[in-house]
Amino acid sequence: MIGALFENLFDAFLRPRRSVRRLIDGGHGLDAALLLVLLGYLARAIFVLVTPGARMFDGAMPMAGYLIGLIEAYLTFGILVIAVHHVGRLFGGTGTLPGAAIAMAWYQLVVSVLTPFVASASVAFIEAVKAASENPDTPPELPGGSMLILSLSLCVMMWLLASYVAELHRFERTWNVLSVMIGLSMGISILGIALTQGVV
Q1: How many CB atoms lie within 10 A of CB 21?
Q2: Residues 6 or more apart from 181 whose CB is under 8 A from it?
Q3: Could you say which DSSP state residue 114 is in?
Q4: What is the pLDDT of residues 79-111, one digit of tens each?
Q5: pLDDT-derived band of residue 160, with 50, 70 and 90 as boundaries?
Q6: Angle (CA) 197 82 179, round 5°
Q7: Which of 61, 112, 119, 170 lies 20 to 30 Å from 91, alpha-carbon distance?
């Protein structure tokens, strides 16, 4: 079973649609989806602990912090499932709610593999911004390597999400799904800025 999981995790990056289809067709229930979300959260927590420069603070995180992080992981999972299912249906998709649950749980586990890169790059970027704000007279030196890693990781995460959504709803072209996702994200961002600025 562990071997099959690692094999599918390998396929998740090279053949993402095939990997998620294997899980959707496996007849897994909500219990399996919730377990995948838990595994994804545990993987992220472990990666942050063992990756140099991936933590913003020294010392151990209190247990309450881990519990809050787990709750946030399940909330994110719920929002993703509802959004992916209903928006996909609006565009003619055929995915089911249980299928969306297993697909988004798999997505959260898969992207946890990127944690060592994303976490360390994020910390380096945040520290550079903080240093620049504390010394306004000094020209900011943003780490180009961290920016590149964050950008590449975001692109991979967006592509994987688009691939899983496309396979869930049986959309033929992943690029079309990715375009819709980017368009919706931009629209929501613009609306959020307009609301905060009092324009709307």
Answers
A1: 17
A2: 158, 161, 162, 165
A3: G
A4: 999 999 999 999 999 999 999 999 999 999 999
A5: very high
A6: 65
A7: 112
pTM strictly above 0.70:
yes
Q: Which two tokens stand for residue 96?
A: 């089911």
The set of long-range contacts for 44-52, using a CB threshold of 8 Å and a minimum separation of 24, is 44/112, 44/115, 45/69, 47/112, 47/115, 47/116, 47/119, 48/115, 48/119, 51/115, 51/116, 51/119, 51/120, 52/120
Residues comprising the chain, all counted: 200
Q: Please answer whether residues 74 and 37 qualify as being in contact, where contact means their C-beta atoms are separated by less than 8 angstroms.
A: yes
**pLDDT recorded at residue 62:** 73
Distance, in Å, from the CA atom of 82 to the CA atom of 39, rounded to the nearest integer, reads: 21
Rounded to 5 degrees, what angle do the CA atoms 6, 75, 98 make?
60
- Helix (H) / strand (E) containing 187: helix 174-196
pLDDT (0 to 100) of residue 88:
93
- The distance of Cα 114 from the centroid of its chain, to the nearest Å, equals 9
Comparing 171 with 7, which gets the higher pLDDT?
171
CB 98 within 8 A of CB 27: no
Taking the C-alpha atoms of residue 21 and residue 41, their distance in angstroms, rounded to an integer, is 22
**Residue at 104: amino acid letter:** M
